[in-house]
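Human: We require from you a standard protein entry with sequence in single-letter code and fold as C-alpha cells, and nothing else.

Assistant:
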Amino acid sequence: MRYSIRGPLRGPALVAAAVALATVAACSTGSGDGPPAASGTGTTATAPGTATTPPPSPTPTRTYPLSTAPRTIPAVGSHRAARGPGWKPGPDTGVVVAAKDEAALADEARLIAGELRVPYRGTAAARPGDVSLALGGQGSAESYTLAVQGGGVRITGPGQAGVFYGTRTLKQSVRSTGAIPEGVVEDAPAKPQRGLMVDIARKYFDAAWIEARVREMADLKLNQLGLHFSDDQGFRIASDSHPEVVSARHLSKAEVRRIVDLAASLHITVVPEIDSPGHLGAVIAAHPELQLVSATGRTPRGAVDISKPASARIVDELLREYTGLFPGAYWHLGGDEYVALMARNPEATYPQLARAATARYGASGRVQDLATGWLNDRAAVVRPTGKALRAWNDGFYPGGVAVAAQDLQVAYWTGKEIGARPPVAYLSAGRKVLNYNDEYLYYVLGQPNDFAYPTGRRIYEQWTPLVLRGTTPVPARYDPQILGGSFAVWCDLAGAQTQAQVADGIRMPLTATAQKLWDARRPALTWDRFKALAGQVR
C-alpha cells in the first residue's frame, strides 16, 4: 500500500499521520509464508480533534499457483493439482511407517530415508514435514497414491511394490527439483512385466555390474531381470550337478544369491534361461556325444541330438538344480533357433530325428513335433515349481501333431527365423505374449546381421507394447494379452564393448523402454526434454 503526503503536516495532523502509519505496520507483520496478522474489530485511536481514520486492509496470505506433476521417469499416471508450497526435506524431516505395516515396509522406509538423508523413525507419529508410508487402498499391488498436503508426504498402496514405487517418485522429484509439488499422485503401470534381459553367457559380466543394473532398473520401476546364462560360448553360473559344463569365468552361487536377494528387495524378479535344444554349445563341449550330426556328418553348432535320452537327462538335471537357486515366479525355456529345423528337409537331413518323431507321434510325426515335445517335456520339469513359463516365438511350430503347452507364454522377438509367424497368429490362439521386438529392443554387441544399436529416441517416439514385430502395431483388442516386454542385451560379438560401454550404451534406450512399458500413451515431453530430465533424475 502506498501513501501520498501532499504537503508538510504540522501539529495534530502530523500526529494523526504517524499513528495511522504505525497501525499499518502493526497489521502487516505476518510473513508472506504464513497467515495474515489478525485485524481488530474496534476503532483506530486518533489524536483529539482529528477525523477517524478507517483501519487498513490486512496483508493478504501468499497465494500459490496450481501445482504441476512431479518430474519423474516414468512419468506419473495422474496428478491432482493443488495450491500449496509442496514439500522438500528439512532439518526436522523423518520417515515413519504405520504401526501395522512396519514388518512389511521397514525396508522401503529405511531406503528412502537414506536416499533423502533423513532419519527413519519407525512407527512414531508423523510430524509436520515427515514422509509416512502405509499399506492400503484399492488397485493392483504395483499401484500407489502419493499425497503432498499439509507440509508432509503420505505414500500408500495395496502392496509393498506400489509403496516402493511411490518412494521412487518422491526420490526422483527431489533429485530433479529439490522438492515434490503439492497435490495427489495416483499411479499404476500399464503392463505388469517390465524388464531388462542380459546375455551373460556369451560375455562374462561381473556381479557388481549386474547389481548396478538392478539398482538402475528399480529407479525406473522395472520389475524383471532376465539372465540368459547358457549358450554356445559359455555357461556362466557354478553348477553342482554338472561342474564340467561351467566356464572358467562365471558367477558363484553365492554371487547369484546376492543378486537375487538385492533384486527381491527392490521388487525385481530374476528370470533365468537355460536355452535348449539349440544354444547348448557349452554343454556339448563337455559332452560331445550329445552333438547333433547330420546324415552327411555335419555338426551344427550348439544343437543337441534330441533323439538321445542323455540329452534330455543332462538338461533336466540342470533345470532342477537352478530352479532352487532362482526362487522367482518365472522361467525362460528358450526353444529358439534349433538348427535341425532350418534344413530344407529336416527328416532327410537328420534321419535319426525323423525316426524318433514317428516312434513317438506315429506315421505323421515330423522333426518339428519332436522339437515341440522337447519343449513340453522341459516345461513339465519346471512346472511343478509353480513358475510361469515362456519360450521364444520361433520355438512354437504350427501345423504339427504336437502342440506347445497352452500355458507357455510367447517371448516374441522376431519375424526373421524359421517357424516365426506374425504376432496375431499367437494372439488369436489365445496365447499371452511378451514383447522383445528385435527392431527396437535388441542391443546386439558388434551390430552383426544387420542389427543396429537401438536409440532411446526411436523407442520413445515410435514403439509401444503393441508393436511386437517390425514397426506395425497389432490391433488394440489384443492389448490385454500382451503382458509387457523387455529390453535385451545380446553379446554376439562379446569383445565389441566393455561392461562400462554396455552400461552407457543401454542407458537411454532402457530409460525410454521403462517409460513406454509404464505408460504406453504418447509422452507429454519432447525427446530433448525427456533426455534432459533423465540426466537430472538418474
Observations:
- Residues 1-51 have pLDDT under 50 and may be disordered.
- The chain has 14 helices and 15 strands.
- The first strand starts at residue 78 and ends at 80.
- Residues 499-518 form the longest helix (20 residues).
